[in-house]
Every structure is written in structure tokens, then in C-alpha cells.
Amino acid sequence: MIPEASPKSPFQMSTKQIDSLVVDAMLNQQTDNVFFKDRESRFVRVSRGLVQHFGVQSAEELLGKTDFDFFADEHAREAYEDEQHVIATGQPMPPKIEREVWPNRADNWVSTTKLPWRDESGEIVGIFGISRDITREHLLKLELERKTELLENSNRELEQFAFIASHDLQEPIRMIAGFVQLIERRYNDVLDERGREYIRFVVEGSSRMQALINGLLQYSRVKTKTSDLEPIDCSLVLADVVRNLQVLIKETDAQMDIENDLPVVLGVRSQISQVFQNLLNNAIKFRRKDVPPLITVSVKHEGDHSIVCVADNGIGIAPKYQNRIFGMFQRLHTREQYAGNGIGLAMTKRIMIHHGGNISLESEVDEGARFYLKFPRTEANDESYT
Ligand SMILES: Nc1ncnc2c1ncn2[C@@H]1O[C@H](COP(=O)(O)OP(=O)(O)OP(=O)(O)O)[C@@H](O)[C@H]1O
Ligand SMILES: [Mg+2]
What's the rounded Cα separation, in Å, for the pair 131 and 152? Predict the structure, then answer.
């Protein structure tokens, strides 16, 4: 009996036979779209994935055909021109995102690479390409881009509105404040006690409104162009801020414990200074009765961010208010209890976001507050990378 011929081991084959086996195995199993085309852009070999992608039964239905037999003209022409360019120049086409337009089914998006296909002598006999369906990712990306643009537009409009409103309101409010003060001075004798009290309310109200409008105007002016950014050493900025707050620090017997090597960040100096000024001011202002303020400033590095923590031992903030206090004009106390307009933290947050960072908070009532300033890490801090 003649034994059945056993399959040859790859070691007994020529390189050419192995190559052909490899290509067959790859094309039959490959779920990506892989294709070989001749110099006229006709399909010569295709992968299983491409057969499915084109919605045909077998590879044979594609062989000898071109993109013009399947796609809408415009897309087929663009693909054809790309392929002819690869053949003419011998240069691969780098990954390109293409919209495939079919005559009777929904469009889809693919990322395609095309390379010259050469024979043994190096002659270009066609092209081979690999393309992957990225419709889902691409549509998500487009949707995200659309939403980002809408958001940016609406932010810009809001900024402009805040700027115009606060700018234009300044003048009338200045006038009201000025004239009421005049009445207060000139007609003091004519007015009775009640009249004087009313005038006092108007004076107070108008100067408060002036402060709010100024705050709004400053807020809407926080802009950070990349070209304005320079390396800012937070240690130096903080030292200046502490110097400016000396009187308040002395008056309240506040203790400061500041870590030595605060980060160098890319920023606008006046804005970074304002951030520390607002936080230290709050830390002292919202102190507990009979407990001198203790303020600690420390830093930790996390991945590509540096996080500066400003902690105090003050009255603290209940968790349910911890988002609210970063909003404009949001305060948790009356002005009689603690002076202020509710602008400091809104401004701080806006500055941090404009610097590519953010601000967050951990606190409990009566247990002090820890504000975390998250800055993108700069190269200047790389020695301290942990
Ligand atoms: N360190 C803190 N401890 C406790 N509460 C705080 C602290 N910092 C802020 N708050 C609360 O958050 C509110 C908002 O703070 P923000 O700095 O925006 O306003 P403000 O200090 O009241 O006024 P302004 O900063 O405009 O002078 C404060 O009114 C206060 O209720
Ligand atoms: Mg404040």
C-alpha cells in the first residue's frame, strides 16, 4: 500500500512557496481590509475582511474589478488617483482617513495605507493596501469636535456679554453713587432721620454694586494666551503675596508653613499671584473664632501634574457646598458675618482652567479646608520627578 503523501514541512519548501503560503494564510484570516491591485487598480488578491466589507460572497467577485464598480464615482476617483501616485512615485501613501461613499448604503470611514507592490526585480507591479473601518471612532470624534466648537462659541459669547455688560454698567452706577453722595452731603440738614437712613442704603447698595461690577469685569478679562505664558516660580510669587498680607497676618496671629520647593509653572505672573492671594485671604478670613489661622502650603507631583495644596484650620465647608463656592457671587455667609463679594474663588477657578489646570477642594465643617491647585508639569520641575 502506498502511504498517503504527508504535507510538506515549510523547511522543505522554497522561500517563494513559503511566501505564497504566508500571504494565503494572512489574507484568508485577516479581518482587516487587505488588498493587492495591479497597475490599473484592479483587485488581484483580497483578504477575508475586504470580502465582508464589500458585502460580496467571495473574493472571486472582486478580482479584476476596480473601486469604480463599487463606490460612488468621486470616492473611487480619489482612491484611483492615490494609487496611481504610489505607482508613479514608488512612495507609500501614509495613513489617510477616507470617507467611503457607496451608491446604495450608508457611508463609512476607513483609515487606509497604500504601498507600492514590487516584483522580484523591483519593478512596481501594482499597490497593496491595508484599511481599517473606523466609522464609530470617527463619528464620535466629529461629534466631540462639533460639541467643543459649540461650547467654545457659547463661552466666547458669554465672556463678551459679561465684559460688555459690566463695562457699560460702570458708568451709570458711578453716576448714581456720585449723586447720592452729593445729596447726602448737601441736603443732610433738610432730610429727617429716615431720609438719611434711606440715602445711606442707596450709597451702600451702589458701592456694593460697583464692587460686583468691577469683579465681573475683572473676571471676564481673565484671558491667557499661550504667548503670555512664562515660567513662574510659585515659591517667589507666594513670598510676595505673604509680604502683601503682612498686616492681616500680624493682626490675626496667622502662622504660615510653606514647603520650600514649590513648582515652577507656565503662567501669567499677575494671575498666579491672584490665585494665592485669594486662597490665603480666604484661609485667614474664614478662621475659627479664637483659633489663630494655621496655613500650610505643600506640593506633590502626580504623573504630568504638580499639585499645590493650600490648607487651613478654619471653619471649613460642608461637602454639599463644595462645588457651589466656585461659582460667581456664591457665598455661604452674610456680609455681616464675613466681608466679601463671592468673586475670589470663581476667579481662581477661571485662572486655573486658563492655565490648563484646575482647582478642587476637600473639607468638612469645623475641620479646615484643603484647596488643591493642579498645574500641568513643566520641564523645569523634572529633577523633582518622583
Ligand atoms: N478657606 C475657606 N474656609 C471656609 N470657607 C471658605 C473658604 N474659602 C472660601 N470659603 C467659602 O466660599 C465662599 C466663596 O469664596 P470666595 O473667595 O469666592 O468669596 P469671598 O471670599 O466671600 O469674597 P471675595 O473673594 O470676593 O472677597 C466664601 O464666601 C466662603 O463661604
Ligand atoms: Mg475670597
Answer: 34
